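> @MW can you paste both from yesterday?
MW: sure, first one:
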Amino acid sequence: MLGQTDIPLCEIGIKNVINIAPKMNHLGIRLIYCSSYIRSIQTANIISSVIGVNVIKRENLKERHLGVLDGEFKDALCWRDVVNKLGEKNFTPEGGESVDNCLNRFTNEMKRIANSNLDEENVLVVSHGGVITLFMRYMLHIDNKLSFLDNCSFHILDTDRKGNFHVSKLNVSLI
């Protein structure tokens, strides 16, 4: 579980992003927002270099702070009970961030991005699987296997003129 462990993309991750970046040209992306973590910045910069748009870093797009779980292996027996509770609304891992705090931080940032880009055709937000899954589950009420992102995949969300989010496609892969 990476949580707020800030590590770079692995070689496979870099190759995957290099592979999908040219395929993103048809999406009409005008601007990229990314979290402040190196793996998110690398992803955004690779895509940006291919499609020719600017990247803006936003601290509030970072992953949920998992406290004692940050950087641990989720399959370890000693963490099994704690890991199973991570998606529960009322559970906060020791030293970590509550679901509500994480959702408020991330959702407010997504709303700021949407509201500042109402006239833009499309923007890309590069963030992290855990926080995106929480956002999809609790804010957009999408709770199925497709709401958890595979590596190098994305959801397509639309916004109306009021900045409300609507799901267009889930777990899109260009690999």
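MW: second:
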Amino acid sequence: MLNRYFLTAFLALTLTTFFCRAQNSLPAADVLRQQYPDSKMVMLEKQEHLNIDYHSGQWNIESKIKEKTLYLSEAQLYSQKSIFLTGFDEINNLEAKTLVPVKKGKKTEFQEFAVEKVETKDVVMGSIFYSDYKEKKFVYPALQDGATTLLSYTQVTKEPRLLNAFYFSNYGGPVLSSAYSVSVPKNIQIAYKLMGNNVDNIRFEKTEKNNLITYTWTAENVEDLKPEENAPSSSYYEPHVVVYITRITNKNNPHEEEVILENADGLYKWYYSLVQNINRQPSAEQQQLVATLIHNAPDDTEKTRRIFQWVQSHIKYIAFEDGLGGFVPREANEVCAKKYGDCKDMASILVQMLQLANVPAYYTWIGSRDKPYSYYDVPSPIVDNHMIATAKLNGQYVFLDATGEYQPFGLPTSMIQGKEAMIGIDKDHYDIVKVPVIPMEENAETENLSLTITDRTLTGTGNIAYTGYKKVFFQYDKLRADAAGKSGSFYNEYLRKGSNKFETKQVSATGFNNNSAPELKIDYNFTVPDYVTKAGDKIYVNLNLNRKYQQAAIDKKERKLDKEVEYQYVEDYSYSLQIPDGYELNYLPPNSTFNDPEFGYTATYTHQNGSVTLHFRLYINHLMLKKDRFDAWNSMITKLSDAYQEVVTLKKAG
């Protein structure tokens, strides 16, 4: 077996070879500019070798990382470089330099500029109050178009369950040669999972030499998939490999094994070890609080509702990431006293308070929809990034995520819909269940308006109601507007229809800041000057006041990625126009419809009792619109855009 001293010498030799060879094998920038005209940089080589060993009761996990990058244009944009790490990592032996091409006759030589100053700084993240994330930050000297940078460093990982995924691609440009290898002694077993697009192009090789097994994955000409609006996280499409340690066998006793992450059992065993010793003794304050909250509650559902809403309204969500503190909830007594905490802390206090109320409640690990992994396929902490509480009510699991400030009781936060939840029952038992995807009908936007015409001004009165996630996100939008000092214009912008001359006159809202209310309802009056067209003895009015999908066609030539939506929903509008005295209906537009299992609409016109009414209903019945559905989506938008142009025509009677 390679010992760590030999490994250090081997890596040093590899680094020296890398830097020497790099200066003698750089391709011409002009050739790459022709090959990649839309790229500002090309990563020539991306390599990582992970060595895993276990010696004298200690894990030794080191990754040797090397990058070679050539800059084709606007090189100054890339001069600053950061390497990020957590409290579970160390970065050592960092070397970086710039190679600037210099013409000497017909030959090109490279002048070397080494990075001499590397700063280590705390990373300030907008949504995290405190974290142990750090960055190694430096500037590539003399970086210019046509120059090449070389980077090499060693990353030490202290926790064997927290191995990083390796991405064959690179943000910002294509990768010509990408390689990842893992070496382990034969008494350590690993598993792996390839994820993302084009993984069939990744070559795999497994070799054995003496007591060492090496797994190697290589890829060439890996394309750069640029970020796109409303695309899923990069983990869905960028090709990458997830490696995890399954078990280790005692070298001196083959019958003595320790399971690390062989399956979900191993992961849960570790997770349980992190929570088993918290909340051993509830405080008198908490016991009294729970007794007060559940007084006269008729059943467990009502107890749970009251406790959930108390945590929602009294514990401020503040994210923390601090070593194992990023995995271990704080004591519920402490959270209750301080009145703030992160997702794990809110789960901690929910579980304890519910258990004090004799409601079955459990810690629950779950990944947001940014995580494409399953506990069954990749039983490692890479699967999840969130913790909630789960109560069992009437034989059914109810997911409780108190980080959602406006979340109604019983409605999971939108970011965990459809995701697997690992529910910790006790030391030896857990359940893995999927959080339901909330049906579109429960997330509704329903608007009813009565319209009249005064000269060329359209005047309206009515109401709009939001339920489910529509209600939740309306309140977040209002909160952001208030924080930005835009309270005065919020309703005008949010309810705008017809044209930019739309103006609300009177607005009153009910159900706001009331998570128990089934809907949030806004009553309002408005005017839209110059919206009505008059010509001769006729009046023309387009009742399609809300045409927000008119520009929703997807450019298939430009868009490379699937399109994600936050939640499924229905929008239902009824706009009724009172025909002015002395006028009669001259033209009633035809009805229009488009039905697809994932999306569709209906537009229906009726003429009754001196009024013309447009009833419009649109539904979105998917969370991810796949690329192979773009044609069908565009067909709907084309038909809908035509329907948007239809105009009701009135003419003078007689």
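> thanks! The first helix runs from residue 4 to 23.
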